[in-house]
């Protein structure tokens, strides 16, 4: 998968699959099928969320509405040097509920270094997160893409982390508050090579974009540069993946240049990937505020990580999943000066899919806060959505029936 296509389809799974039947939020499952068979794909979902922090006695609520699609503009015969040309897009709308606190306000009142969920909407917002073209080459060994994409839903993607509201809610797991490139959503390009058990891809993206298609910002020449390498050894019981990203950022949101490393692994075992263990660690250097009067522009964490386990289809229930993760975050220097110390925590969730279009995910977070007390955050996330994929023809010409093509195999 290229950077653009994976960014579009929101990383419910990329290198890995969780072994749970597809839900409203697992858009990437359907998107991967569509990319492998030349199908068109459309997913529409609505996800409301509510959380309550007991010690701080405050609550937050928000929703996100997503329309995600992939259309094959030009089909190519099997085994041709020039493959399919795809158009991919992702439109997102989000807002907080009524007079409730925003996610950022709740985390501040609770004395936490990171947000308790990945939708920090202060007011209503609608934006194009992804809009781009992807070209496959050399029997789908090489992909090239250009357009607007979302790096945080692309690199080191996993069925268990950064999974687009399909499981964990803490931003330490569903996002990455350590590195600035995670949310550098802007115009860029990438190229990737997909081997049998390994891949390498490089990308650059506008690191200062403020609008949907911010060509003026792109012309300023301030970019985030990323290089990713992954290795997936054979695993008959599921998926095993090891990967790392090294990066450099010229400048972002009045921050100095930044560089760093993010490493991640996942291993599944048992009957049809019944169990999984996964982890990620991030380290950055630089990224300090350019405004000496406002050091808070810098990210609150300088390094952090997670280590988790998942039980897919617990007790033989194919419509459920249980997972838990430990979380660790080391504050940046300016946060240390404010009195923050290293924070630890955990999150546990239970996912239940009673209908193909409905997912219910209660969760619990326990985190050591600013006052060295244990803050308890309980939450409920509900997903409602529909998806469709079809392959009658490409946009421009008919398609002859062909066997599904697995990317990189």
Structure explained in plain terms:
This protein has helices spanning 3-8, 27-37, 103-109, 171-174, 215-219, 333-337, and strands at 40-53, 58-74, 82-96, 125-137, 142-149, 186-194, 198-206, 223-231, 240-249, 258-269, 275-286, 301-312, 320-331, 343-355, 358-368, 374-390. It has a single domain (3-390), classed as Porin (Beta Barrel), CATH 2.40.160. A 16-stranded antiparallel β-barrel has the order 1-2-3-4-5-6-7-8-9-10-11-12-13-14-15-16. 9% of the residues lie in helices and 47% in strands. It has 409 residues and is mainly beta. The model is unreliable at 1-32 and 395-409 (pLDDT under 50). It has six helices and 16 strands. The chain is globular. Residues 1-25 form the signal peptide.
Brief digest:
This protein is mainly beta and 409 residues long. It is built from six helices and 16 strands. The longest helix is centred in the N-terminal third of the chain and has 11 residues, at 27-37.
Structure keywords:
409 residues; mainly beta; Porin; 16-stranded antiparallel beta barrel; 6 helices; 16 strands; globular; disordered N terminus; disordered C terminus
The CATH superfamily is Carbohydrate-selective porin OprB
Distance between the termini: 12 Å
Radius of gyration: 20 Å
Low-confidence stretches: 1-32, 395-409
Task: Find the structural class using helix and strand composition.
Answer: mainly beta
**Morphology call:** globular
**Helicity level:** under 10%
- What is the CATH topology classification name? Porin
| Mean pLDDT score | 84
Instruction: Count the domains.
Output: 1
Strand line-up across the major sheet = 1-2-3-4-5-6-7-8-9-10-11-12-13-14-15-16
Work out the strand percent: over 45%
What series of H and E elements makes up the topology? HHEEEHEEHEEHEEEEEEHEEE
CATH class reads Mainly Beta
Overall strand count: 16
Q: So, CATH architecture?
A: Beta Barrel
Biggest sheet overview: 16 strands, antiparallel, barrel
Put simply, the count of helices is 6
């Amino acid at each position: 998968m290229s950077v653009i296509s994976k960014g579009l389809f929101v990383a419910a799974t990329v290198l890995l699959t969780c072994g749970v039947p597809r839900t409203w939020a697992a858009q990437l499952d359907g998107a991967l099928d569509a990319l492998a068979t030349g199908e068109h794909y459309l997913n529409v979902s609505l996800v409301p969320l509510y959380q309550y922090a007991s010690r701080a006695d405050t609550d937050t609520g928000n929703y996100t509405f997503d329309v995600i699609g992939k259309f094959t503009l030009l089909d190519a015969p099997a085994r041709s040097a020039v493959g399919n040309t795809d158009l991919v897009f992702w439109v997102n709308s989000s807002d907080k509920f009524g007079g409730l606190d925003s996610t950022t306000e709740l985390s501040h009142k609770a004395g936490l270094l990171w947000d308790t969920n990945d939708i920090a909407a202060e007011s209503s917002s609608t934006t194009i997160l992804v809009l781009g073209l992807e070209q496959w080459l050399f029997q789908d060994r090489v992909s090239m893409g250009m357009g607007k994409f979302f790096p945080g839903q692309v690199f080191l993607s996993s069925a268990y982390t950064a999974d687009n509201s399909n499981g964990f809610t803490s931003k330490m797991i569903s996002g990455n508050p350590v590195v600035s490139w995670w949310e550098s959503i802007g115009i860029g390009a990438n190229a990737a090579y997909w081997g049998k058990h390994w891949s390498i891809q490089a990308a650059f993206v506008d690191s200062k974009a403020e609008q949907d298609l911010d060509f003026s910002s792109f012309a300023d020449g301030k970019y985030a540069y990323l290089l990713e390498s992954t290795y997936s050894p054979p695993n008959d019981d599921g998926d095993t993946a090891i990967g790392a990203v090294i990066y450099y950022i010229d400048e972002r949101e009045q921050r100095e240049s930044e560089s760093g490393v993010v490493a991640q692994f996942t291993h599944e075992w048992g009957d049809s990937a019944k169990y999984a263990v996964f982890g990620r660690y991030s380290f950055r250097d630089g990224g300090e505020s350019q405004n000496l009067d406002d050091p808070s522009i810098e990210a609150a964490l300088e390094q952090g990580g997670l280590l988790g386990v998942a039980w897919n289809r617990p007790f033989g229930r194919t419509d459920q999943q249980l997972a838990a993760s430990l979380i660790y975050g080391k504050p940046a220097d300016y946060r240390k000066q404010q009195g923050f110390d290293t924070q630890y925590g955990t999150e546990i969730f239970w996912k239940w899919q009673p209908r193909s279009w409905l997912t219910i995910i209660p969760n619990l977070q326990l985190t050591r806060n600013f006052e060295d007390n244990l803050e308890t955050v309980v939450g409920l996330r509900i997903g409602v959505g529909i998806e469709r994929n079809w392959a009658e023809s490409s946009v421009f010409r008919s398609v002859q029936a062909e066997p599904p093509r697995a990317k990189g195999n």
